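Notes from the pairing session

We agreed to fold both candidates in a single pass and log them together. This is the raw record for the first candidate, unedited. Please don't reformat it; downstream parsing expects exactly this layout.

Candidate A
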Amino acid sequence: MKRLILLFLAVAVTTPADAQFGRRGYDSAPLPNTEYGDEFTFVRIEYTPMYYRGGEAPWHHDYPRAEQNLAKIIDAVSYLQTYMGGSNILRTDDPEFLRYPIAYLSEPGYWAMRDSEVLGLRNYLLRGGFLIVDDFGDEWGSREWDNFEMQMRLVLPGAQAIPIDASHPIFDSFFRITEPEFHSSYRGYAQFYGIYEDNDPEKRLMVIANYNADIGEYWEYSDTGFLPIDLSNEAYKLGVNYLMYAIMH
């Protein structure tokens, strides 16, 4: 499987210059959502940030190329029918949100929710939804963890983010990841945290947080030659494992 991914990336680096670093489409409008159907569709959570720093909205980072590239990998290594167009953009209080088993949240350091969005995400998680939280850290004293923790405790009062190590099944759900020590180019070494049903590690994992990491960045730029292939592979392994774990649980 690893060879498959390496082959894909080796071909992908020859793509046109439009894909090169810096051509991110800041402030570009989201693509139209696809209708719910038989294909697995990645969902990215839209939110109104507590403050706006210019450029693209924090929830928008790495969209849509991150999920488009991840979909290509899923299609290459599995039989899962996957929507290849990117992801659906939904707020957590949209009734459509409950239809999709896996959601992705970018930049929770800026995350804020209306009361209806808090309730929507609570219902989603308690009904079996799985949340991937990515692209945040406190390397510049930004206290992004504090905001993530505060927002999650609005959703699940008393929720505890518990460190996850290599023994957790999520790191062996498709690829065997013996040392989950993903290194982000600007955030440092990732730490992985989980929020479990009833704060019990023996029960269902509902949320995984990639703290001090930005795996979406590696999905986005994996076909440009800008980032190291080995790190892009590790980011894809994490993404595929998260999806497979969530589908099986």
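Candidate B (folded immediately after A)
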Amino acid sequence: MGIFDMMSISASALSAERQRAEVISTNLANAETTHTDYGGPFVRKEVVFGESNASPFQTVFNRAGGFGAAPAGAVEITGVVDDNTPPVMRYEPGNPDADKNGFVAYPAINPISEMADLMSATRSYQLNASAVNAAKQMIQDSIDILKSS
């Protein structure tokens, strides 16, 4: 694995963690949404990560063709799936979204868990940014060594 592959893998992780943070933010923003366009409460979303399936041959071939494919081992989002946890039912007979028994379905979103996930995504993003910066510094140091020879 070359230094540019390391940067490519970290860049793919940066992108994946950014998207994860966006999904978590959407969950937090809709924690009290009881009615959506599809009917019923907002459903919590989860990001599913996977590893890029590009073989070393595909990676070299795509780079030679100018496509810039991520190397094998790069992070990719394989999907954003709905959480299957049932909604939380609260007794609020005066709410317009209440059923015939006076219960309102709220999303099954725990703000504390979501904030912990958001902190994890932020920290992962920061660590990958540090890895990119370290790789850039190694490249710069190599150039400086070559210039002084």
